[in-house]
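Q: Structure tokens for this one, please.
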Amino acid sequence: LADALGPAQCPVDVPAAPAELASLALECDALPACAHTCSGPSRPLLRALARWCGCTAEMGAHAHALRWLLALATYAALNASRLLLVGGLGRFCWRELFAGEFEFLATCDAAGQPADGTVAALRAEAERAGGALRAGGRMRCAAAGGLLLPWLLLVVRAARHVSVMPGRL
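A: Here is the predicted structure, written as tokens:
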């Protein structure tokens, strides 16, 4: 109040002490009657601004929904591809990971030796199963990459349509 009623603003004599200004009472009857020069708010301007505010709020809601959906899609895609990749690498590199011994059930003679042809059949079966395991590992690794590709394209597409506002995170 002291700044607003200081000597530069007011041609009348105003007490200089702020404590005196704070204790002054406003005399409403001494003020002249107001002459209204405004016919009210501009309806076209209010309509345009209300539409702009509504669109901005809707855009913000859609942006938050997209952010959450993109975060959930990222979480799901990365975890699913991780599971596929680790399982695929374990199957693909099974020779490097196994201990070198297999346990098996077989028909044996009285001395505990496998029946004729059993060892050769087991070797052939182990090779066949190992090849199938490696092929399944390659398929899982390819599926992990295939799962990441749509996610990566979605992130790149979303990044193109997101504008960064300076000063906001």
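A few notes: Residues 43-92 form the longest helix (50 residues). Residues 70 and 155 are 8 Å apart (CA to CA).
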